[in-house]
Design goal:
374 residues, alpha/beta, VC0802-like, elongated, binds S-adenosylmethionine
Length: 374
């Protein structure tokens, strides 16, 4: 029997498309094409399960279920009512429709959302109290409407381990992207001397061991008919069985005791307590820099950005001091810095290159990478 194929769009932070494309290719899809904002991927039901379980760089997964011409609101509702929503969404679900329109005769997004929701309700029935929360997107561009279902629900970067946060936590997908773009080989030591709630260190441990990023949480499609619990159980078991039992040394530190408590609690939930060495220490005493493990590995860190401190001058000494510590490291170390101000990269290690530029909640973020000179 021919396998049914599903078309998914995996959205990611801008600039991460090539990295996400590589991640997707490892799942052997039927096809995967990087586009602005994400990766369009086609594959079977197995792939639909595995993108949620195994991708660490995507923010949302959207299953495209229909494309049609759309020039009249009344047609939109009748057309939506002809689609087999019960094959994709749970009966009685509480469906929110989000509409977007560009260059089309239909432009009133409120009316578009209402008509599509009415069509869906014909198939799924009225929402039940406590019914599953689901989101459908209606995107109308040049008089053509694409309908898609948000199969992830909660954004995919939320792994489920980060319940405790310190100041200015870095999003999990961005921490992972920084680790990949830094050139860290995942076999040698990793040091984060300003670890906050431990996101870089924990994502580092998961990357090094090959722990699937979605294994701790639920996703919206799990409430509906596309979810096959046995398929999920097997994929999860297979991925966790393949994971390495331990990571290389990962030394995380921060001067803030609350941040270290958060990092330890998050590491415990992520199942990587034994992989991380978390210490409360100011930069000048960071164990990973004072007594660096060998062989040389990577320092990947996200120093304070100081957006609220009124200019960058107050932070300059911190960046210069990081530069001094890095110069003292024996051997050649990879360096990855997550910055909001590219000027600081020069203060740390001369010759660091911009490896990634992205955006988080309207803030431009740069990842500078390079090697210490020895
Ligand atoms: C942007 S936050 C890091 C956030 C972290 N990546 C996370 O995901 O939670 C910067 C961290 O640097 C720490 N920090 C600032 N100055 C420091 C210093 N001199 N020594 C050690 N840590 C410092 C702060 O306590 C803060 O936790």
């Amino acid at each position: 029997m021919m396998q049914k194929h599903y078309d998914l769009f995996l959205a990611c932070a801008p600039g991460l498309e090539p990295l996400l494309h590589d991640e997707v290719l490892a799942l052997r899809p039927v096809s995967a094409v990087a586009e602005p904002g994400g990766v369009a991927v086609r594959g079977g039901l197995d792939l639909l399960h595995r993108v949620h379980l195994e991708l660490g760089l995507a923010l949302r997964a959207q299953l495209t279920v229909d494309r049609s011409a759309a020039t009249r609101l009344d047609h939109l509702a009748t057309h939506a009512a002809t689609l087999p929503w019960h094959a994709w969404l749970p009966v009685g679900a509480n469906v929110t429709v989000r509409a977007h329109a560009r260059g089309s005769r239909l432009y009133h997004t409120g009316a578009i959302a209402e008509r599509v929701a009415a069509g869906i309700a014909v198939r799924l029935g009225p929402p039940r109290a406590g019914g599953s929360e689901q989101t459908v997107y209606a995107r109308i561009v040049d008089d053509h409407c694409a309908l898609s279902i948000d199969t992830g629900g909660e954004p995919l970067h939320r792994r489920g381990y980060r319940q405790a946060t310190a100041k200015a936590p870095l999003r999990e997908d961005l921490a992972r992207a920084a680790l990949i773009a830094s050139g860290w080989d995942r076999k040698t030591p990793l040091v984060d001397p300003m670890c906050g709630s431990g996101t870089i260190a924990i994502e580092g441990a998961w990357l090094a061991r090959g722990i699937p990023p979605g294994h701790l949480r639920r996703f919206a499609f799990m409430d509906g008919p596309l979810f096959d619990p046995e398929r999920w159980r097997l994929a999860r078991e297979r991925a966790l069985d393949k994971a390495l039992p331990a990571a290389p040394p990962i030394l995380a530190s921060d001067r803030d005791a609350g941040a270290i408590a958060a990092a330890n609690a998050n590491a415990a939930r992520a199942g990587v307590t034994a992989d991380l060495d978390c210490a409360c220490a100011a930069l000048g005493h960071a164990p990973g820099l004072r007594r660096p493990p060998s062989p040389p590995g990577a320092v990947v860190t996200n120093p304070p950005w100081g957006r609220r401190l009124g200019g960058k001058q107050p932070l300059r000494p911190l960046y210069q001091s990081l530069g001094t510590r890095l110069k003292e490291l024996p051997g050649r170390w990879r360096v990855g810095l997550v910055l909001a101000d590219p000027d600081f990269a020069r203060d740390v290690v001369p010759g660091l290159k911009s490896a990634l530029m992205t955006d988080a909640g309207g803030t431009k973020i740069y990842l500078f990478a390079g090697t210490t000179r020895r």
